[in-house]
Design goal:
CATH superfamily of the largest domain: Response regulator
Number of domains: 2
Strand content: 5-15%
Helix content: 40-55%
Number of helices: 10
CATH class of the largest domain: Alpha Beta
CATH topology of the largest domain: Rossmann fold
Order of helices and strands: EHEHEHEHEHEHHHHH
CATH architecture of the largest domain: 3-Layer(aba) Sandwich
């Protein structure tokens, strides 16, 4: 497999689902599957050891559910993109997945038509949601749900980084404070800017203040 291909890890406890998704991915010249696993613990080991660009992840699995895999995979390798592939379309599932770090959310019954477009979108730094998922989120927002709060899109670790960025700490200082690498700090900061649509440290600081994440000087 060429190094120029997008390297995909499949995580689903159903062999037939993985086989179908693999066929779709490997029919495209720009993508290749580097591994497939059937439970959450195996998924984390694969994320840590394989050269993975994007994980296609089910949410319902044995040993560890997909939400926990999401959170821990993003802590292990923040730059890895994660595309949820699920049968659940309701807003609670979607928003929790996004909060834990999902870059996109695709329904299994839409995989044949949308999988490649979804993979291309998340690898380009964009979010991707199946149309029915978008409708669920829209309904929740119109109902006045707290799901519309931008900070709810952030993981706990991203919030930690945001607070320290807003306090004026350097990348090295943040890395030392959270016991992570400077490169991981940079990845978290990039994810913060992408999710919040903010383009500068000053705007991140203003957002943190507006959300009450640190005391006003």
């Amino acid at each position: 497999m060429s190094d120029e291909r997008t390297r995909v890890l499949l995580v689903d406890d159903h062999n037939l689902v993985r086989a179908g998704v693999r066929r779709i991915i490997e029919s495209q010249p720009g993508f290749g599957v580097v591994g497939e696993v059937g439970d959450g613990e195996q998924a984390l080991r694969a994320v840590e050891t394989l050269p993975v660009d994007v994980v296609v992840l089910d949410l319902t699995m044995p040993n560890m559910d997909g939400f926990e895999v999401l959170r821990r995979a993003k802590e292990l390798r923040p730059a890895v993109r994660i595309l949820v592939l699920s049968m659940h379309a309701n807003a609670q599932y979607v928003t929790r997945a996004v909060r834990e770090g999902a870059d996109g959310y695709l329904l299994k019954d839409s995989a044949v038509q949308e999988l490649v477009a979804a993979l291309e979108a998340v690898m380009d730094g964009k979010a991707y949601y199946s149309p029915s998922v978008q409708q669920e989120l829209s309904n929740a927002l119109r109902a006045g749900s707290a799901l519309g709060r931008p900070r709810d899109l952030l993981t706990d670790r991203e919030l930690d980084v945001l607070k320290l960025v807003a306090r004026g700490l350097s990348t090295k200082e943040i890395a030392a404070s959270l016991d992570i690498s400077p490169r991981t700090v940079d990845s978290h900061r990039a994810n913060l800017m992408r999710k919040l649509g903010l383009k500068s440290i000053a705007l991140l600081t203003q957002f943190a203040l507006s959300e009450g994440l640190l005391e006003t000087p």
